[in-house]
Design goal:
mainly beta; 57% strand; 0% helix; 7-stranded mixed β-sheet; single chain; 4-stranded antiparallel β-sheet; 11 strands
């Protein structure tokens, strides 16, 4: 069974930085893409960054220029570097991985979520 474990969340002041990590383990054949979502209180979950196996990256306009997604293939880990944090970035952040568990089977997997609070 594939497992995604997130870490790096916490409380930070506006203008500060955090780096989130998401490590995938289990029976993994190959990755299609990994990404980050977030869900603020009372709001829908939104996609904020993706990194596919070909190296392509995409960002939501709300985080572009402040957040950077990266991946360490050897560690099966994706990171989200968050700089210049704003109160509106406060949310639970979820890691997502779309991966093959065999040459013919793929699925989406989710991390448990990590809380980010940006406040004075």
């Amino acid at each position: 069974q594939v497992q995604l474990v997130e870490s790096g969340g916490g409380l930070v002041q506006p203008g500060g930085s955090l780096r989130l990590s998401c490590a995938a383990s289990g029976s993994i054949f190959s990755f299609v893409a990994m990404g980050w979502y977030r869900q603020a209180p009372g709001k829908q979950r939104e996609l904020i960054a993706t990194h596919n196996s070909g190296g392509g990256r995409n960002y939501a306009d709300s985080v572009k220029g402040r957040f950077t997604i990266s991946r360490d293939n050897a560690k099966n880990t994706v990171y989200l570097q968050m700089n210049s944090l704003k109160p509106e970035d406060t949310a639970v952040y979820y890691c997502n991985a779309r991966l093959y568990t065999s040459t013919q089977t793929w699925d989406d997997y989710w991390g448990q979520g990590t809380q980010v609070i940006v406040s004075s």
